[in-house]
Amino acid sequence: MRIRLRFLLLLVALALSMPTRPAHASAIFISADDNGHEFTFVRGDAVEISLPATSGTGYTWQAEPVAGGSVKQMGEPEFRRDSAMPGASGLEVFHFAVGASGSGTLELRYLRPWEKSAPAAHVFKIKFTVP
Questions:
Q1: How far apart are CA 107 and CA 9, in angstroms?
Q2: 91-129 burial, b if ≥16 CB within 10 A, otherwise e?
Q3: Residue 53 in domain
Q4: Taking a C-beta distance cutoff of 8 angstroms, is the pair 95, 46 a contact?
Q5: Fewer CB under 10 Å: which end of the chain, C or N?
Q6: Which is it for strands 102-111 and 122-130: parallel, antiparallel or unpaired?
C-alpha cells in the first residue's frame, strides 16, 4: 500500500512540475461586423481583417501603428474584387501577426491618402488582449 501511495505521489509531483503548454495559435477572421468588439488573441495567432472598399475612388484602408508591438501588420493589404468590372467593390484584406503579450487597439481608417486634413470616411476599431 505504501509503495502505491508513493508511486501515486511521484506521478502527481511529475505532472505538476511539467511546463504548461501554451494555447494553440489559430487563424482569426475579422470583418466589418466586428467593429467596436473586443478580442483575446494568443501569441502566434494570425489575424485577417477584411473590410469593404471600392476600387477607383481613391479611398483605401490604412492601418494605424499598434503601440507595444504585440500585433504587427504583415505585408501590404490585398484587394479582393467582387467582380472583374472596373471600379468594382470588394474587400481590402489585412494580415496581422500576434507576437507578444499586451493589450491595445487596432484601428484602420478609410481615407484618401493625399487628403491630409480630411477626416476618414470610415473608422474600424477593435480592442485586443494577448495574455
A1: 51
A2: bbbbbbbbeeebbbebbbbbbeeeeeeeebeeebebebe
A3: yes
A4: yes
A5: N
A6: antiparallel
Confidence at residue 79, expressed as pLDDT on a 0 to 100 scale: 93
What cell was used for 15? 505532472
CB distance 129 to 103 below 8 Å: yes
Q: Residue 60: left (phi > 0), alpha (psi -120 to 50), or beta?
A: beta
CATH of residue 86: 2.60.40.2020
Asked whether the CA dihedral 104, 76, 31, 29 is positive or negative, the reply is: negative
The per-residue pLDDT of the chain, averaged, comes to 85
Q: Is residue 39 part of a domain?
A: yes
pTM beyond 0.85, yes or no = no
pLDDT at 3 over 90: no
Q: What is the span of the domain harbouring residue 76? A: 23-130
Residue with cell 483605401: 60
